[in-house]
Amino acid sequence: MRSGMKLSEWFEQRTYHYSEFSDVRELVRLKREQGLTISVCLPTKNEAGTIPNILPVIRRSLMKRHQLVDQLAIIDSRSTDATAAVAARMGAEVFFDDEYLTGQPRAYGKGEALWKSLVPLTGDIVVWVDSDIRNFTPHFIYGLLGPLLREPGVGFVKGYYRRPLFLGEMKRETGGGRVTEICARPLINLFYPELAGLIQPLSGEYAGRRHILESVPFFTGYGVEMGLNIDIYRKYGLGSMAQTDLRRRVHHNQSTEALGRMAFGIMQAVFRRLNEEGRMDFHEQPVTSYHGISYDQGRYGLDSREIQVAERPPLKTLAEYRRAREGRRREAAS
Q1: Which range of residues forms the domain containing residue 65?
Q2: pTM for the whole thing?
Q3: C-alpha dist (Å) from residue 195 to 73, 129, 201, 227
Q4: 2 lies in some domain
Q5: What is the C-alpha separation between 138 and 144, in angstroms, rounded?
Q6: Alpha-carbon distance 250 to 178, whole Å?
Q7: Please, are residues 139 and 246 in contact by the beta-carbon 8 Å criterion?
Q8: Which one in 14, 58, 211, 302 has a CA-CA gap of 20 to 30 Å to 194?
Q9: Nearest-5° angle of CA 10, CA 15, CA 18?
Q10: CATH no. for residue 314?
């Protein structure tokens, strides 16, 4: 049911700091008291060099020392490096996105991997974190779980943080999240101002209750985060959402050209929603070919790519998903 919570009220009541949840033993108690299980999953594509910064930390601190996380996994998009082998060696379950929901039309990208990961993941709560974090500590996980375990009305939690910017020799303590500031935030303020309090609407660290994640569509590729923000807000209201300050996130910064392609995908997702809502009328379908400009050895050229953001239906509407989940339950019970 949609909540009538106003933006200022939401920002005050649903904005947290990870330190509020640093008593992990209390979170474990709340998890057990509510009979919940928790899965943590990293979407991966050629991340053999960075997942050793993340997986051992989760296993050591949140599975062995504290039994907060019940399942640790990666959902891999057929990496060509040693990502799968490294993850398995570090005690994570390894799943490949192309092995699930094979009866659906093939699609690609991060959103596709997250959507399909809900098949093998077993938790009542699912936490997704990007696999390129260089300064990972346990608070990236328990900071996201805290609001879900303490507040029954919260169903979806986004992480936010300061993002240093490293481009060549240039180093700035802030300045990351450029697509947020020049694309996502203007679009939100124009068309979904109720979501304007999201500090990092495109962050790759978020957690949700399974029944909510199963009930909303997923956009593939770069549209996934914006789509989830909009669709969870539309279906469950602002009060079902929260955000946690995770302090600082260090990762590889993308080029300006790559950010343009990301913005193109995000705009596709937003415009599709506006069209469905009757607030934007397309007389013809928007193009999905993106023509960037390249520069090499003193010559300019066209860098043309197909960037099509597809929409995946809510998983709970798919008989194939329900069959797959039942198969997973039987497998776990045997």
Answers
A1: 7-333
A2: 0.92
A3: 30, 21, 8, 12
A4: no
A5: 10
A6: 14
A7: yes
A8: 211
A9: 165
A10: 3.90.550.10
